[in-house]
Design goal:
Layout (H helix, E strand, L loop, with lengths): L17 E12 L3 E11 L2 E10 L5 E13 L3 E7 L2 E7 L7 E8 L4 H23 L19 E3 L5 E4 L6 E3 L6 E3 L6 E3 L2 H4 L3
Antiparallel strand pairs: 1-2, 1-7, 2-3, 3-4, 5-6, 6-7, 8-9, 9-10, 11-12
Length: 201
Amino acid sequence: MSYSDWRQLVSLFPDEKVIHEVSWVECYTEMAGKYGDGRLILTTRRIMHINYRTTGFWTTKFAGFDSVTFEISLDEVETFHLSEDTIGLKKRGGLYPGAHVDITLHFTGSNDSSSKQQADAFYEEISAAIIQAKTPKPIEVKQEIIQYNIVTKFDFGGKGVLKIACPHCGASSPLESKSSIVLCRYCGKQYIIPKKILDLI
């Protein structure tokens, strides 16, 4: 079974974006040998090779996408290098701890110059993407601004009752307790009474 669009084989993450795509790239691994031609895809999170299904004998024609040859998280890439029209990748992981897998990507453009240009362009993109992926993300610090309204006006009314003015509406009310937070009976907003005023009660 083949697919007309490689996205039918691979689902991208919500925050994942495709950076670069190259057609007709041959993929080799040290364990399986040549996989064949396919589409090489670089995203903000990984590198993928999607194998082609082809037809024809003398002239190879694209007949759909067959399977995912490999997909590697950018964090898994240990080293990578460029040589003419070929890029070599070394991926963490294998049959035993500390092992790695070598992957070779051969770019097959219409001619030697085109192949090298494709390899050069992809190498620049993968270099920037790997650096970006391995750079620690800054920790987002949320700042919360709390605004307090504090009483600044007060007076002693009749019989020595301490009255305070609401900083929101200005209404004057007798101070009946030593609570530092007061709810204005007129406007319904809260305000704070300094300790020095409370000490006068």
